[in-house]
Design goal:
This protein is an all-alpha fold and 428 residues long. Helix 2 packs parallel to helix 5 (90-99) and helix 10 packs across helix 14. Among the domains are: 209-354, no CATH class; 358-427, no CATH class. Helix content is 58%, strand content 0%.
Length: 428
């Protein structure tokens, strides 16, 4: 079933890395297979929809706040530069970064939590597993000999690079604190055939280097930019890091949301380093001068984290191109701690307080309503591609998965509109 597109020479990559799940006709040699992968993501409807999906604050909250799309573009820029510096093919990393959030549902992690509860009996819901499903099934580009969609039909290297959690539900690493496997996972049971194919010869449970770069770029981007959004939105004054009480609040938030990968002393030392770096000026007043200083601080933080990891990886593995499973990305413990501090600031002053807002609960209720009413009215109420999937589904579990696929594909805006059209009249 697999096939090679053509034998373009790409340092560090072999023919199997350029293979596609389904054979395609001959292509122009003007672009590499990996350049073509990136183009397929850029032109996908799933990428466009990210423009109306929540990152941390809803897209309609103001004109400055980041959406999933703007976040994705920033991740791609950071990841491409890190990958290029290490010798990865930049287009493989770029493709993985552009794809990394495609499977996220409306309303960000709030929506993900709601769908995970609704899908508990059919193998759960996870944005990263949904990304793989979208890339290999739901986003139409290529069909197989039987006429079934195989999604964008990306190369093995690009697909593998997009898999942040290369394991099945409840098969991932076990937390030392809880003794339970992580709730994160990268593949649903009915997508195992293509997952097995893309993971050919990969060490079990290990991410390829390009996926590790994508993951770090994601962490860097949202930790830095969520703090920037919070400052501009008036939700955070960075002078809080000068207060012992507020530092403890941030440390507690990190422990609750992100675990104990770095202890309190390490986090406190990271805060002191960030304060000593004088990257930002206190008393943000919204002026152009203040905005410029804040933007310069975000740029320096991104460079600080990226370069530290590049230097540490090169120190471990030397010069020359590093690709796929030839190396692991080395992130210094101090860098990890500083990234966690920024994540903790966003949690303590934006994300945790947001969970108490009535809107936050209303969003989850909206998705629950949509799954219920679409299940009742399927296939008529489903969009044509999902209606076809529903008719072909073998049992109730498979039909529920189709409904969840439909709801996950919606944007914040289209979910609210569909809810108003289908649910409110029923209640009236």
């Amino acid at each position: 079933m697999t096939a090679l597109e053509h034998d373009v020479d790409i340092d560090g990559y072999v023919d199997a890395d350029r293979a596609r799940w389904v054979r395609e006709g001959s292509k122009s040699r003007e672009r590499t297979p990996f350049e073509r992968d990136r183009a397929r993501i850029v032109h996908s409807s799933a990428l466009r929809r990210l423009g109306a999906k929540t990152q941390v604050l809803g897209p309609s909250s103001d004109d400055f706040v980041r959406t999933r799309l703007t976040h994705t573009l920033e991740v791609a820029q950071v990841g491409r530069e890190i990958g290029k510096a290490l010798g990865c093919d930049p287009d493989v990393v770029d493709t993985a970064c552009l794809a990394h959030d495609l499977g996220h549902p409306p309303f960000g992690h709030n929506g993900e939590r709601a769908l995970a509860e609704l899908a508990r009996g059919i193998g759960g819901f996870e944005g990263n597993a949904q990304t793989l499903r979208l890339l290999t099934r739901l986003e139409p580009k290529v069909v197989d000999a039987q006429g079934r969609s195989v999604g964008l039909n990306l190369t093995r290297a690009s697909l593998d690079a997009s898999v942040k959690y290369p394991w099945r539900h409840l098969q991932g690493p076990v937390s030392a604190a809880s003794g339970r496997p992580t709730h994160k996972f990268g593949v649903y049971e009915d997508d195992l055939p293509v997952f097995t194919w893309l993971r050919q010869d990969a060490p079990e449970g290990r991410k390829c280097l390009e996926a590790q770069v994508m993951d770090l770029a994601d962490d860097i981007s949202y930790s830095v930019h969520d703090v920037e959004d919070a400052v501009v939105g008036g939700r955070l004054d960075l002078s809080v890091l000068s207060s012992r009480t507020e530092r403890d609040r941030v440390i507690d938030a990190i422990g609750t949301w992100y675990g104990d990968a770095v202890g309190p002393d390490g986090l406190d030392e990271a805060m002191s380093r960030l304060v000593a770096s004088r990257l930002w000026a206190p008393g943000f007043d919204g002026s152009r001068g203040a905005l410029a200083l804040l933007k310069d601080a975000t740029s320096q933080l991104i460079g600080r984290f990226a370069k530290a990891s590049q230097r540490a990886t090169r120190a471990e593995y030397g010069d020359g191109p590093l690709t796929r499973y030839a190396a692991n990305l080395v992130v210094p413990s101090e860098t990890l701690a500083e990234i966690l501090v920024l994540k903790g600031l966003a949690v303590a002053y934006v994300m945790a307080p947001r969970e108490l807002e009535p809107l936050y609960h209303a969003q989850r209720e909206m998705l629950r309503d949509l799954v219920e009413v679409l299940s009742e009215r399927a296939p008529t109420a489903l969009e044509p591609p999902f209606a076809a999937d529903w008719r072909e589904a073998a049992d109730d579990a498979a039909r529920l998965r189709v409904v969840v696929d439909q709801v996950a594909s919606l944007t914040d805006v289209s979910a609210a509109a569909l809810h108003a059209r289908l649910v409110h009249p029923r209640r009236g």
